[in-house]
Design a protein that fits this description.
This protein has 4 helices and 24 strands. The chain has about 230 residues and is of the alpha/beta class. A hairpin with a 2-residue loop joins strand 3 and strand 4. Bound molecules: uridine-5'-diphosphate (UDP).
Length: about 230
């Protein structure tokens, strides 16, 4: 019995996720079936190796002998992640989740398959998160947050309590969300983009890009106004 685990994407994020996965697997009971970790990337070349691991195209991964195979898609772009997750589903390959050993999770956290929780991530209490969530290093999600599918947190995102984030939203490094309330959560719409360092104090419409402190929509007028402000 051999289990094959693949990290889809060998660029920046994939190479950060692989070692976390390797330690996760090392922590499994001694009598577990032997595991192998490989990369999948559509840009793979024949016989390619990366950091001591085989690199496969999706088809060569499917053809590699194994009794069980699973994938996690470690690519920050939500649209690509969705497309590749769908490719795996169609081929009958399930997603697995990666979680660093030092992730802190408090009470009643629900999280979908295919998620990646990097080192130093904290999820507090009463949180619901969809599938394929990426929380990069040092990010946190506080109480009563609701996060959709394919949401990406870059490093050190500060998501305070009662914030709702729609599917496929991208949250840049160090962004801060003001806490909402149970009756009026702070809402970030589907596919929204929050720039690095933004301080989000108001709802963000679906598909919008916001930046700055306090965060405003990314328009030429707002950019010029912020530049004048120094
Ligand atoms: N990629 C892929 N199939 C796709 C789209 C992208 O295998 O349909 C790979 C691409 O070759 C690259 C990686 O995904 O190696 C994405 O890398 P990028 O640096 O853009 O993303 P990040 O690692 O920052 O999430």
């Amino acid at each position: 019995m051999k289990r094959l685990f693949a990290v889809y994407g060998f660029s920046g994020f994939g190479r950060e996720v692989c070692p976390v996965l390797q330690s996760q697997l090392e922590g499994q009971p001694r009598d577990s079936a032997p595991c192998e970790v490989v990369y999948i990337d559509d840009a793979a070349t024949d016989g390619q190796m990366l950091n001591g691991l085989e690199v496969h195209t999706f088809n060569s991964f499917l053809n590699k002998p194994a009794d069980e195979r699973q994938v996690v898609v470690a690519i920050a772009d939500a649209a690509i992640r969705q497309k590749l997750t769908h490719r795996c589903e169609q081929a009958g390959v399930p997603q697995f989740s990666v979680r660093a050993e030092n992730v802190v999770e408090l009470d009643n956290v629900e999280i979908g398959e295919g998620s990646i929780l990097c080192p130093f991530v904290t999820l507090t209490s009463d949180i619901k998160i969809g599938k394929s969530f990426h929380a990069n290093i040092y990010s946190y999600v506080a109480h009563d947050c609701v996060i959709g599918d394919y949401v990406t947190f870059a490093p050190r995102v500060n998501c305070n309590g009662n914030v709702h984030i729609g599917d496929c939203a991208y949250i840049g490094t160090g962004a801060v969300f003001k806490q909402g309330t149970p009756r009026r959560p702070l809402v970030v719409g589907k596919g929204a983009v929050v720039a690095a360092g933004a301080v989000v104090t108001k709802n963000v419409p679906a598909g919008a890009t916001v930046f700055g402190n306090p965060a405003v929509p990314l328009t030429r007028a707002n950019l010029e106004a912020r530049r004048d402000r120094g």
